[in-house]
Amino acid sequence: MSPWVERLAALVEWQPLNLAISWPEIEAELGVELPPDYKEFCEVFGQGEFSDWLEVFSSIDGKRHLLPRTLAALRRFAQGPRGATFYEPYHIFDGKTGLIPWANTEQGYTLFWDVQPGERWATVMSSDIRPWRRFEADMSEVVARVLTDPEFDYSIANDVPVPTFGPTDWARR
After folding, report:
1. Residue 6 and residue 36: Cα distance in Å, rounded?
2. Cα–Cα distance, 82 to 170 (Å, whole number)
3. Rounded to an integer, what distance in angstroms lies between the CA atom of residue 117 and that of residue 101?
């Protein structure tokens, strides 16, 4: 297990699910290969929320995956009148470059990868009331730092000293 995924599992006392997720199908639908740490994260945790605050888009059963559905919804929004400028200076992933959402928070922040050919996928985060922030880190590191590092932007460490993780019920979606 990668160090950050392992650290997250230990932090919330989570036993890996070892989900068999059909990554070739999901990546074909998205049009891009996803980062290895994200795929490992999804196989270990599945769909769920950290501390009732941060939901990472994943799969509850290995078959249905929330990320393609979320990206499709954001593409529809971006084509509308409000969406035309909502993501500036970025744009939603167009098959080559742009933003792919991987999580959201209870306060309406969205975490995205900024996909650029030949570059490491940085995380960018937005909200309606805060400017874009860029983090040069894997998604599992960003999640760990949000949960544990009080100095990290968007951290909940001071508000939630003991992070938790719980699976999401797909029936609610």
Report:
1. 14
2. 29
3. 17
Q: What is the pLDDT of residue 99?
A: 95
Roughly what angle, to the nearest 10 degrees, separates helices 3-11 and 139-148? 30
Is 21 within 8 Å of 39 (Cβ atoms)?
yes
Nearest to 95 by CA among 71, 67, 123: 71
Percent of the chain at pLDDT > 70 equals 95
Q: What percent of the chain has pLDDT over 90?
A: 70
Residues 6+ apart with CB under 8 A from 76: none
Provide the 3-class DSSP secondary structure of residue 170. Answer: helix
Instruction: State how far the Cα of 110 lies from the Cα of 102, in Å rounded to an integer.
Output: 8
What residues pair up with 84 in beta bridges, in sequence order? none
Q: Residue ranges of the alpha helices (H) in the chain?
A: 3-11, 23-30, 36-45, 66-78, 83-86, 139-148
State the Cα torsion 30-32-38-43 to the nearest 10°.
Answer: 60
pLDDT of 43 strictly over 80? yes
Q: Which amino acid, one-letter code, is at 3?
A: P
Single-letter amino acid, residue 145: R
